[in-house]
Design goal:
The chain has helices at residues 2-15, 159-175, 181-196; strands at residues 26-40, 46-60, 65-73, 83-91, 97-107, 112-123, 128-141, 144-158. By secondary structure, it is of the alpha+beta class. It has two domains: 2-158, Porin (Beta Barrel), CATH 2.40.160.20; 162-196. An eight-stranded antiparallel β-barrel has the order 1-2-3-4-5-6-7-8. 26% of the residues are buried.
Length: 200
């Protein structure tokens, strides 16, 4: 309950800033680099660094971004994990920024736990965005309490942007079919350069 109240207060605090058109709509994949702080009853605290993978989709509803994400967090030196999970994301876009909350489930060994956190993403360019977030989960399983706190940074790649960049040159090539051979050849070269620039 405390995590939900904190998340709600976080979103309300940025709501008055105002929002513009979202830069985060669509499908994305990404990687995380995180620090895990794990506790299990009276055992010593464990600290470890881990890598993670994620994939998700965001819906821009005009001033509100709703998203779903699946992920894996490979903190094998923790009392739990490697973990996998699914979360819902609720964000308020502010120009190139997206503050958000996450609520979902995470688990594997020793079991699945409630999961939540706060984060902020920043649009770096047409295809890339970066994010930083804090997440936490806890559960008592067979009389043993497990708690995790994670701080991570991530890099995300928009798959929708790739599709748009590829389809536009393809459409241009199709439209040029009725042009002269010389004009068509020039347009095909320009389209090929556009596809090349998708990743560079």
């Amino acid at each position: 309950m405390k995590q939900i109240a904190l998340c709600s207060a976080f979103l309300l605090s940025v709501a008055s800033i105002g929002a513009s058109a979202s830069e985060f709509d669509g499908t994305y994949v990404g990687v995380n680099l995180g620090h895990n702080r794990a506790a299990m009853d009276s055992n010593p605290i464990k600290n470890s660094t881990y890598l993670g993978l994620k994939a998700g989709y965001n819906w821009d509803l005009g001033g509100l971004v709703l998203g779903g994400e699946v992920f894996v967090a490979n903190h094998i030196s923790s009392y739990t994990g490697p973990d996998e999970g699914a979360t819902a994301r609720f964000g308020l876009p502010v120009n190139l920024w997206l503050p958000y909350v996450k609520l979902g489930v995470v688990g594997n060994d020793p079991g699945y736990r409630a999961y939540g956190g706060l984060g902020v993403a920043y649009a770096l360019g047409g295809r890339w965005s970066a994010n930083a977030e804090w997440t936490a989960d806890s559960r008592k399983i067979d009389g043993v309490s497990y708690k995790n706190n994670n701080i991570s940074i991530g890099l995300n790649f928009s798959l929708d942007t790739v599709c748009n960049c590829i389809m536009s040159p393809v459409a241009a090539i199709s439209a040029s079919a009725a042009h002269s051979p010389a004009t068509r050849a020039a347009e095909e070269k320009a389209a090929a350069r556009s596809v090349y620039r998708i990743f560079f």
